[in-house]
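tool=predict chain=A
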Amino acid sequence: MKNAVQVHAALFVVALIYAANYSISKDVMPRYMGPFGLVLLRIVGATLFFGILSRIVAPQDRIIGRADNLRAIACGFLGIGLNQLLFFSGLNLTSPINASLIQTVAPIVTVLASVVLLGERLTLPRLLGIGLAGVGAALIILGRGHGPAAAPGQDTMLGNIFILLNATAFGVYLVIVMPLMRKYHPFTVLARIFLVGAVLAVPAGWQQVQQPDYASFPLSIWLAIGYMVVCLTILAYLLNNWALKYASPSLLGAYIYLQPALAVLIAVSLGKDTLTPAKALQALLIFGGVFLVSRKPKAQPVAAALPLEPVQD
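tool=predict ok
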């Protein structure tokens, strides 16, 4: 019972960390720092942390073999570098509610990737779920409304597309990373894939990280940046990996829906965005689609639990 409470607490904290980020990031971007600069700080900080931690916890563990090393490179490129560059670029242009809802389609991408890469069955309910979520996401992406989070001149549609591509990259990453997670210590894998992500993030964000006048940053902005580096990138990964050892797929599935719900509550309460009837309908379509897709066929590979991992941005 004690362990169950701890798992729920860990998953809730992870969902809350991710949900709050949608609004917190908008305070920093683009006024104080560009999206690529934030990504550089996040990934470099996590690379140092997990690199040191992996040497302490699993000093003898190494990713070996050409196939595993190529897989690690693909995971770092898709799941860390490209994923985060697309996410922050998209969030910089769109609203917190749009971003949180569109990101929910990542489990659907994971199922499609499992069908293509693992030969998983695509049932009629899953096809219906893909269609429902696709309609919901399309309505959000094609919508041209500008909420309070969108500044004049921002391209909301482009931001929505970036978030969809971010969810796609992360959905594929969830499928291809699992063989590494089963074979090596998680910290060994995280250290390697963050290092690969840094190779992409450093040249992309180097100019933006040099531009800000850091001396003019108020304390609230420093706290927001610290939150994104420590809580969003490091703490969330640690809690999530621990919870995945004990949580059932159905429990993980429930927390998929909690993250955008919390993101909406936080964004609306802080005045960062507004929840309109149209957005509520789009959310219902996406949630309904994800629910149908997340229902496993009777005979399903273990990798099917992957779509239920909370989204990491």
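Residues 146-150, 300-311 have pLDDT under 50 and may be disordered. The chain has eleven helices and no strands.
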